[in-house]
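User: Please run a holo structure prediction.
Assistant: Happy to. Please share the sequence and the ligand.
User: Here you go; the ligand is iron/sulfur cluster.
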Amino acid sequence: MYKVGVVKLTSCSGCICEIAYAFAFDDILSNYNITYATILADVEEMGDVDVALIEGSVSSKHHEELVKAARAKAKFVVAVGTCAVLGGIQSLREGSDINTVKKAVYPNPEYIDVYDVPKPVADVINVDFALPGCPINGDALALFLRKYALGGLPVAFYESVCAACKRKGLECVVVSKGIPCLGPVTNAGCGALCPSFGRGCYGCYGLKYFDLNKEKLETFTNRLIELGMGRDDAVALLKGYGFKSYSTIVKGEKR
Ligand code: SF4
Ligand code: SF4
Ligand code: SF4
């Protein structure tokens, strides 16, 4: 039986729901035992585990300690969801004054001790596997757990949402309706969910930063502007799920 620890950081908990879904399969339950999950039981410290699933972005020193402790106790660490992989929608506050943001949300902002901008988990510890998505696809997590129990990892295809969209035979919303869509620059994994409903993709699986460069991103941004978006809105959309991947591409850095 493999032991699993679930660490929750700053997030909406949507990915926790998908984790719960993945662990509802009989074959997953017969191979895995969740021995630590702050959201499910009041356990002080995580013991040694085979797999740590980390959901949410790192927003404070306390979070840094939690993920470092998880790294020390786990044989294999998985960043679960776009918050954990890229920083998530909390990244939208990048460029804003953190005190103004806190005041807008909390009646007593002085109690809130958070970083100006959240960090992806991989900025703090080495991560062995990443499952992006906002939320993740619970079936993808179940697939990972099945493969891990067999001694392997799922085969990853680094393609864009457009590839899935075309395989499904969907009408392109950009071409047919002039709707902005981030499909060309977004990681696949959702089965082109939004275009399936006639909507443009807004990038919740994160930018495909590993095969984008500054010039390609600028060309794509200009295409969004041609479709009627203001530049600020286009940039906010592109960096909405992880400002760091956006700025990494723009600065030409490697991640
Ligand atoms: S990735 Fe999205 S669904 Fe998952 S915890 Fe973060 S905000 Fe919620
Ligand atoms: S609708 Fe979006 S995801 Fe589908 S082909 Fe067009 S740009 Fe790509
Ligand atoms: S189409 Fe884009 S925004 Fe919609 S679920 Fe997929 S990755 Fe997320």
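The chain is about 40% helix and 10% strand.
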